[in-house]
Amino acid sequence: MDRLIYTALSGASQILDRQAVVANNLANASTTGFKAALSAYRAVPVNGSGLATRAITAETTPQADFSQGPIEHTGRALDVAVNGPGWLAVQADDGSEAYTRDGNLQIDSTGLLRSGGHPVLSNNGQPIVLPLNAKVTIADDGTISALGAGQQPNTIAQVGQLKLVGQPDDGMTRGGDGLFRATSPDGGTAGPLQQDNTVRVESGSLEDSNVSPTEAMVGMISDARQFGMQMKMLSSADDNARSANKLLDVT
């Protein structure tokens, strides 16, 4: 009965955590370049005196689903979709280099190129600043060309290149700001990645979220049923305890 309570109670608690992960995925089903968070359960032994006969359930989100989402053609010059494995480098709020698949680029009032509010980095690691009111085009290798307002077409000039990096062998870790960082072999955060000239972007397009709303809804329903099963197990444990108490009272 003691093991039953531990199993049911820990299971119910972790199912609630899993529901939060699935709900977050579902909420980002229309977020550009979003990668669904994965969720997994594992058994954790309960430390204490006596034999190791008890275990609780732990829910973890070890990785994200890095599969590519559908690419949608928008026709907008500043929209880019990373075609295949790879990432777009941006500057996080703390000044460090981070990575995203959100290619919905914007130019602020100072000419700074941004993705999701974060400055986009060039291949030299510095934020990209573009001429205001210029006509901008982005090549498949990330090279940015600009034509100033009123200038002749033959005066178009290269003003920078997007820093595009590949998928590291040790993978990526999502931070609390939604950006990804490279993972070092010891599980920590690695330094800035090098430019990968094999990564290509598709201009005038955006990568949609790889979350399937249908699968997310099915997952939420499944979790709700599993939670109900855990609650039923707790109720059964309570009934067993009541029956045992009655037998003790009789004797």
From TrEMBL:
User: Among the entry's GO cellular component annotations, what is one?
Assistant: bacterial-type flagellum basal body, rod
Domain Flagellar basal body rod protein N-terminal: start-end pairs = 5-35
Record's keyword annotation contains Acyltransferase? no
Locations of Polar residues compositional bias? 192-211
Q: Which residues form the Flagellar hook protein FlgE/F/G-like D1 domain?
A: 81-146
Where in the cell does this protein reside? Bacterial flagellum basal body
Signal peptide (residue range): none
* UniProt GO BP: bacterial-type flagellum-dependent swarming motility
Q: Which UniProt keywords apply?
A: Bacterial flagellum, Cell projection, Cilium, Flagellum
Where is region (Disordered) located? 184-211
Please give the superkingdom of this protein's source.
Bacteria
Q: What family does the entry list?
A: Belongs to the flagella basal body rod proteins family.
**PANTHER family the UniProt entry points to:** FLAGELLAR BASAL-BODY ROD PROTEIN FLGF, FLAGELLAR PROTEIN
Complex formation: The basal body constitutes a major portion of the flagellar organelle and consists of five rings (E,L,P,S, and M) mounted on a central rod. The rod consists of about 26 subunits of FlgG in the distal portion, and FlgB, FlgC and FlgF are thought to build up the proximal portion of the rod with about 6 subunits each.
Protein name per the record: Flagellar basal-body rod protein FlgF
User: What organism is the protein native to?
Assistant: Salinisphaera hydrothermalis (strain C41B8)
